[in-house]
């Protein structure tokens, strides 16, 4: 058996932890398999929120530099949450995914942050620049220079 890199060991540990103790409403896709660099995570909107009972899918892509490099995280599939910080192409404007990333963070903390972001939403609407952004953005949301100007939603 091939030896795992430090990045792969960390991902394997995080995957086991997420399967054993997932945040509420978060489930690792059962087809996760052996590919540690690409994860699919299913999420259900929390009770008592605008997204209660809605099902979403997150995709995590990890570079070989993880955890020193943040994962690329996007919503995928037919149900992208309508939220002021989520673009219709699934890109998420959340500072811990870029500028505020730290190796101390994990997939679990990212999932908790996204659940929290959705749970605190007061009105389902797209970001004001959604159409322009979706037409002009890079496929990789980490290449976007986000402007974090509204943390009240």
TrEMBL record:
It is an enzyme of class 2 (transferase). Its EC number is 2.3.2.23, 2.3.2.25. GO terms for biological process: protein ubiquitination. PROSITE patterns: UBC_2 (PS50127). It holds the Pfam family UQ_con. Keywords: Transferase, Ubl conjugation pathway. It comes from the Eukaryota. Residues 6-153 form the UBC core domain. InterPro entries: Ub_conjugating_enzyme, UBC, UBQ-conjugating_enzyme/RWD. Transmembrane segments: none annotated. It catalyses: S-ubiquitinyl-[E1 ubiquitin-activating enzyme]-L-cysteine + [acceptor protein]-N-terminal-amino acid = [E1 ubiquitin-activating enzyme]-L-cysteine + N-terminal-ubiquitinyl-[acceptor protein]; S-ubiquitinyl-[E1 ubiquitin-activating enzyme]-L-cysteine + [E2 ubiquitin-conjugating enzyme]-L-cysteine = [E1 ubiquitin-activating enzyme]-L-cysteine + S-ubiquitinyl-[E2 ubiquitin-conjugating enzyme]-L-cysteine. SUPFAM superfamilies: UBC-like. Gene3D superfamilies: Ubiquitin Conjugating Enzyme. GO terms for molecular function: ubiquitin conjugating enzyme activity. This is N-terminal E2 ubiquitin-conjugating enzyme.
